[in-house]
Amino acid sequence: MFKSFFGRFGRDMGIDLGTANTLVYLKEKGIILQEPSVVAIQRDTGSLLAVGAEAQAMIGRTPGSIIAIRPMKDGVIADFDTTEKMLRYFIEKAVKRIGLFPPRILIGVPSGVTEVEKRAVIDAGQQAGAREVLLIEEPMAAAIGAGLPVNEATGSLIVDIGGGTTEVAVISLSGIVVSQSARVAGDEMTESITQYVKRHYNLMIGERTSEHVKRTIGSAYPTGVEDKMEVRGRDLLTGLPKTIELNSHEVLKALSEPLARVVEAVRMTLDHTPPELSADILDRGIVLAGGGSLLKGMEELLHEETGMPVKRAEYPLTCVVRGTGIALNDPDMLQRVISTPRKYV
């Protein structure tokens, strides 16, 4: 089914089309591209000015004639035309030129996407130049990339905390048995810091500043040590630049609501897991993946809330794209994982 004349010459490619970052895996070469999912366009003409890191540097700093946007929201396409342009740029950058034999692409999508959203991803990939677009659910790809025994008759629980969604799934025999896709993840955590500072200090700070605060002194669980940092923004009362000091306890408080929703998604998944698989998970533990899992204290938080051992994958930022690459290199596995019936909770 997957072997064809074109397959001998075309380059198979795995893509983690994330809300925050897009990663590309080229068959037999590994991960060759990792860029922010940001596009800068000319407001009047709609022409492409920059993509990836170059476009991200423009966020919050563009004149009125330029728009720097993220075309993905909550793990799905929010702006089809811009996503297509971004995908084409990344594909061409990855293979230099598409040429006579365009690539076949395996793209990771959230487990809770609708058929319409799936169709949008497929159409965007085809419009960007792919000869064939296959989809794999992100928690399955993350589990494969994390090295979990997805083919075995044993339960594995993966929690993939990305930029737009948190994917929680119990996997056994190459299928997703139970899954929960919560549209709360790293971006909402960043926004919660922005709103906290706005409410308590009447200070408006940018997305990049909030992200820096989260990474520097943010935590999901009390550390017992109070870290502090200076934060600069615009005073909402005077309109003038202002600097405040923010501490880690305040950031923990700001993050409490989105973190509670992540924990709830994990609990709901466990509540609907068959007893035999629950026993396996108790033995093997919960595996964390995605950029959101890098937040300090995330392992401790989930351990306290579930009573289960929790560990972070070796390469949490690249688990999904690594999983697409492994699946592309194993036709039998690819056949099993690109479409799996599941139970939503």
Walk me through this protein's architecture:
- With 345 residues, the protein is of the alpha/beta class.
- It has 3 domains: 5-138 and 320-344, ATPase, nucleotide binding domain (Nucleotidyltransferase, domain 5, 2-Layer Sandwich), CATH 3.30.420; 142-184 and 258-317, ATPase, nucleotide binding domain (Nucleotidyltransferase, domain 5); 186-255, Actin, Chain A, domain 4, CATH 3.90.640.10.
- 39% of the residues lie in helices and 27% in strands.
- The chain has 12 helices and 19 strands.
- The strands form 5 sheets. A 6-stranded mixed beta sheet has the order 18-17-11-12-13-19, with helices on both faces. The chain has a 5-stranded mixed beta sheet with strand order 3-2-1-9-10, with helices on both faces. A 3-stranded antiparallel beta sheet has the order 5-4-6.
- Helix 3 packs across helix 4 (115-127) and helix 6 crosses helix 7 (207-217).
- The radius of gyration is 21 Å and the shape is flat.
- The model is unreliable at 1-9 and 340-344 (pLDDT under 50).
